[in-house]
Amino acid sequence: MGKLISNPIIVSELFIDEAEILRQVLSESYQQYERYYSPQGWKDYSRKIVSSVDSPNVDKILVAKRNQEIIGSLQLFKSSEKAYGKPELEIQAPIIRLLAVLPRARGYGVGKALLATAINEVKTSGQSNMYLHTTEFMDGAIQLYKGFGFRRDESKDFVREDILCKCYRLDV
Questions:
Q1: pTM
Q2: 86 Cβ contact list (under 8 Å, min separation 6)
Q3: Which domain holds residue 123?
Q4: Three-state secondary structure readout of the chain
Q5: Mean pLDDT split into 10-residue runs, the chain, 172 residues
Q6: Measured in whole angstroms, how far is the alpha carbon of residue 24 from the centre of its chain?
């Protein structure tokens, strides 16, 4: 792990030839949540996570690298319709989805670097706020989001697979 500490995290957009590697990173990063889903629910959710890399609805995929290795990622969408297929949420602002950090790379600021880059991109684009959804069992992520100033917006919550997806909003 010494190399992980000594080299900086570089955040950039995903290159097309890195898509398969990113699928593996997403799968490994989210594996810990399998126990919260039914077997079929997990199969469906994990398939959606991995296939998200190829979605035409994603606006931008950011990847965090250390020593040229992808160790984390984050996806940005332009609306709730693009992010979730849920126009009824009426979110016409950037939405962060699928913040992922490899388990062995956690605790080194990878998530912070990805989130800071996404927030900066949203500010630069002139948007006034951004959103994300998470679940109760993703408590580490929730603490990260709150540290950046995200606040609950219960009016934009929704349920998927009997799991409450809690909305958080950041005014930038």
A1: 0.92
A2: 80, 158
A3: 2-171
A4: CHHHHHCCCEEEECCHHHHHHHHHHHHHHHHHHHHHCCHHHHHHHHHHHHHHHHCCCCCEEEEEEECCEEEEEEEEECCHHHHHCCHHHCCCCCEEEEEEECHHHCCCCHHHHHHHHHHHHHHHCCCCEEEEEECCCCHHHHHHHHHCCCEECHHHCEEECCEEEEEEEEEC
A5: 66 97 97 93 94 96 97 98 96 97 96 97 95 94 96 96 93 94
A6: 15
What pLDDT, on a 0 to 100 scale, did the predictor assign at position 165? 95
CATH number assigned to the domain comprising residue 118: 3.40.630.30
Residue whose pair of structure tokens reads 């995903």 in the numeric block = 14
Question: Which pLDDT value is given to residue 161?
Answer: 78
